Amino acid sequence: MRLTILHTSDLHANLHPWNYFTGIPAEHGLAKLATLIKRVRAASEDPVLLIDSGDTIQGSPLGSYYAQVERVSPHPLAHALNALGYDAFTPGNHDFNFGLQVLQDFIGDLRCPVLCANILRQNGDPLFQPYLIRELAGVRVGLLGLTTPRIDTWERPDYIAGLRFAPLLETARHYLSLLRPQVDVLILILHSGPNQLPPLRTPEHWHNPDRSGWCSNKSLAGENELLALAELDGIDVILSGHTHQTIAGLGGSQALVVQPGYWGSHLSQVSLELERQGSRWQIISKSAQLLSAEGIPPDPELLALTEPYHQATLRYIRQPIGQARSAYSGGLAARLGANPLAELLHQAQLQAVREAGFPAELSLVNICSSAGLSAGPISLQDAYSLTVYDNTLCVLEITGDILRRALEQTAGYFRQLDPNHLPADPAAVVAPEARGYTFDLYHGIDYCFDLTRPVGKRLVTLQFRGQPVEPAQTFRLAINHYRAGGGGGYSMFQEAQTLWISADSIRDFLVYYIHTHSPIQPIYSPNWRLIPDLAKIYFPDCLGRPREHLLVG
Length: 553
Prior knowledge:
Layout: E1 2-8, E2 18-19, E3 24-25, H1 30-43, E4 48-52, H2 61-68, H3 76-84, E5 88-89, H4 100-109, E6 119-121, E7 131-136, E8 139-147, H5 151-154, E9 163-165, H6 168-179, E10 185-191, E11 196-197, H7 203-206, E12 215-216, H8 226-229, E13 237-240, E14 246-248, E15 256-260, E16 266-277, E17 280-292, H9 300-317, E18 320-324, H10 340-355, E19 362-366, E20 376-379, H11 380-386, E21 392-399, H12 400-411, E22 440-443, E23 446-450, E24 459-464, E25 467-468, E26 474-480, H13 481-484, E27 497-505, H14 506-517, E28 523-524, E29 528-531, H15 534-538, E30 545-546
Parallel strand pairs: 1-4, 4-5, 8-10, 10-13, 13-15, 19-26, 23-29, 28-30
Antiparallel strand pairs: 1-16, 2-3, 6-9, 7-8, 11-12, 14-15, 16-17, 18-20, 19-22, 21-26, 21-27, 23-24, 24-25
C-alpha cells in the first residue's frame, strides 16, 4: 500500500498566480498547486493526505484586505482550503499577525482539524487539538502539530494574551511517547525550520549528510528546531515550513523532511510504501519530491471560486495615495548607503511616534524588497511593495551598548572586501547567508562600516549629534516589532525597554505620511557610509539629492 502526503506551507495568502506587489502575473499561488494536487489524486488508487503547515492568511495584500478592511465568512483562504479538501492545518507565527480573533475566525471557517500541541492556555491546556489519529485503508496515521514558540517574542502582547508557547523538543518528546505506540505512521506538521543552512540551498544540497560547511541562519533560541526534531526516534515524516526553503529529504536525518518554499512556489509530495507485518503496517520505503508551480496552469475551478476576492484586492491596492516628484531607488542600491527611500520610511516612523506621544531620536528601517517608487502617481500597491511585512511600530529605550552591538550585527550583511579587487556584480558583496530584511538602516546617528575588516570589528564611527556614543547613553528608537523582539538574530534588542507599541502597521503610517506630504521629494541626510563606498562605485546615479538637515525625533 502506498500512502501519499501532499503538503503546502507559507502560502502567505497567495491564491492566484499574481504578484500584488509588482502588479504582474506570477509563477506561484495555491491555484497552480491545486492543479498539481488534483493530478496526484487522480493518479493514485491509494490514500492521499493534503496538509498545510502555516503562515497561510498573512503576507499578501489579499490577506491584509480580508483581515483589516473587509471581514467575510468564509475567509478566502479557508474557502480555498475547504474546496481542495485539506486534511489538517497547523498555524504559523504570521497567522497571529492580525490578532487571535482573525485567526480564530479563519479556523472557524475551516472544515479540517487544526493541530498544534505547543500553543497553550495559561492553565497548560492546548489551545488547539494537539494531534489526530486517522485510519486510512487500515493504516493508523498519527498527525502531530507544532509551531515555532518564538511567537511570544515577535507578536504584539495583546494579540497573544492568555497564551504561552512551549518548547518544540520538549513537547515533541512528550507526545511521541503517547502517539508512537498507537500508530503505524507518525507525521509531524511543523512550522519551524533548520537553524543551520548549507552554502547552496537547492534540494540537492540539503541531501548531503556532511554539515561541516553549514552556517547559522541566526535564529532566536528555540525558533528553528527542525534539525534536532529530525533526529528523534519515532517520527517518520516532517512537513516543515517557516524558513521558506526547498527541502525534499534531509541528509543524515532519521525522518523524511520536506519544506516547499513559499507563496505556493512548490508542493511537497511524500510517498510511503507500506507492508503489513503481523498486526502492524511497516514502512518499507519512503521518498519525497517537490513539484514546482512554474509552468503549471492554474486550476480553473479554484480560480473561479476565488476570483471575487482577487478582484476586490486589486481594486483596494490600486487606489491612489499621493505623488512623487522624482523616482526613489530600492533594492540593493538602497542598502549600500544613505538614500531617499530609507529616509521616507524613517520620516513616516518618526512622525508616527511623535504623534503618539513617544518622540524618538533614532529610527531603524529595512529595505526588504527590490521595489522603489517611480516619479508620478503613488498607489497603495506601491506602499505594499515597500513594506512587504505586516509589522507594527515600537519605541524602545536602548543604550549605546545595545546600539553598537546591533550595528555590528548589521555590518555582517556584507562579505569582507578587498577594495582593490571588488566583484563586478554588486550582489557579490553580500554575504551568502544574508537576507535583505536583516540589514538595518538608521536615522539620527552618524556611523561608518569598514568592510575591509572582519565581522564584529567593522563599526569605525558612531556619533550622536557630533559626539561619540557612550555605552550607557540612552536613546529612544523607532523600530518594527519583529526586530524589537530580536527577530533576524538581533537578540540584543530584547534587553531594551519597550515604551510603546502601535495598533496600526508601519505600512499604515507610510500611507498616511505620503498622503499628507504629497507630492514627496526624494531627499536624505548622508549620515552613514561604507568603506569602500559601494554606493558610489556601483550605483552612482541612484541616490538623489542629499540634505544635511532633516527632522530628527
